[in-house]
Structures are given as structure tokens and as C-alpha cells.
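WARN no homologs supplied; continuing
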Amino acid sequence: MHRCYLPDADFSAPALTIEREEAHHALRVLRMKVGEVCEVFDGRGHAARGRITATQGGSCLTVGYLEPLPPTPPLPHITLAVALAKGTNTDLIMQKAVELGASRIIPVISERTIVRLKPAEAQAKAEKWRRTVLEACKQCGVRHLPTVDTPQPLADLLLRADLPQTRLVCAITPQAKPIRSVLEQARANGAGAALILIGPEGDFSPAEYAAISQAGYTQVSLGSIILRVETAAFMALSALRYALDPSLN
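OK structure emitted
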């Protein structure tokens, strides 16, 4: 079933109007017709199933006969802060982070990050990644649209007070603790939110590790195998989701 995103949807209304890109994708790309069933979601957890009752060219459609859908189980609030990866790997990280249940994704620029972006480029990339995240939500049935921040320096990330108190950084250092033991303790303490920070291919510098520790991040190990940025992100997200999601335990 095709899913349409409508952030200001009023599901108590008899019908909803969908315009611009969402309508174009449904009518021109998917070639949906009057009478077909689709799901509309608002990105905040609410959704309804309805039937297309009218179209206007290729840029507007009306969905009527709305049936509110039951809420999905809440997911833990997982924030992924990850260094920009080479090529299209950051795009892949965005897509898979949605499938693995991330609530927020923060692209990070560190000392050894190869990819460098000017302010205008960073804004354009962020908009592109937000579209990637939205498409991933549609494909895998996620009703809460994850937040994608504009790429920011590591130093700015470490100053933020609006992030989960359980903060972990994947590290290949002697003092890194096994991620399993750290997450077991977090779960025992009732943590329902956590942040995981992933460094670049060349890892964080010693000075960055010192700043990260000073900011309250716990160093965790993903094992003895050195992982690429995207692989580390997927493994870490899977571990956090398994540990903190009550529906998986």
C-alpha cells in the first residue's frame, strides 16, 4: 500500500487533500487512480487508511473514507551522531538508520572527516537526506519521521544539552567497555533514550577522545574487528534497539 506524508493532517476531517511532491509521486510515479487505497501519516505517529476520491492534474489528490489506524508500539528514542562518510555511504546510513529505529540523525564533522562541506552545501545535503529519510519511512511503515540535523562540527555536538543523557561513543581504545555490558546497565536503570556517536574512518584523534569523555560520553567497543563507518552505525543501532526496545525483550 502506498503511503503519503501530510504533516498537518487532521484525521478527524472527512477527507484530506495532498498536494505538490507527495501528490506528484502518487499520481505520476506510482500512477495511482481514483478508487485506490492508500495510507496517510503525519510523521508524529498518527495515520489513517483511506481511498482516493478525486485528483486534479498530477499535483493534487483527495483521500476520503478515512479509517484511523491503531497506534504502533513506541520505540526508544535513539539518536545517531555519525561522522560524514565518503561517497553515497551517508545516504545509505540515513536510509538504514530509519529501518533500525533511529529517532534523530546528526551528521558530524570531525578532525579526520574526509568530506568537507560549505554552509550552503551542508544545507542542501541535509535537505536531500531528509527526503531519503522520508522515503525510508514510507517503505518500512515508520510513522514517526526522524529528525535529520544539518552537519555540524564535533565540538558543537559536545556542547548540546538537548540530547539524551545516556551517551555512548564507539571507540577502538583500551578503555572502551563492551557495548553489551554498558547497554545491560542502561536497561537496568530504565533508560528509554540514548545517543551513539560513530567516528570517521580514521577514528577520532586523542584530543577529540578527551573532549568526548569530558562531555560525558562512555566509550564502548563493538568487538575486535575494525568496522567501516556505515557498518559500525548499523551494528550500534541494532544493539541499542535490541537493548532498549521493550517489544524485543
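Helices lie at 20-29, 89-99, 119-140, 154-159, 179-188, 206-214, 229-244.
OK
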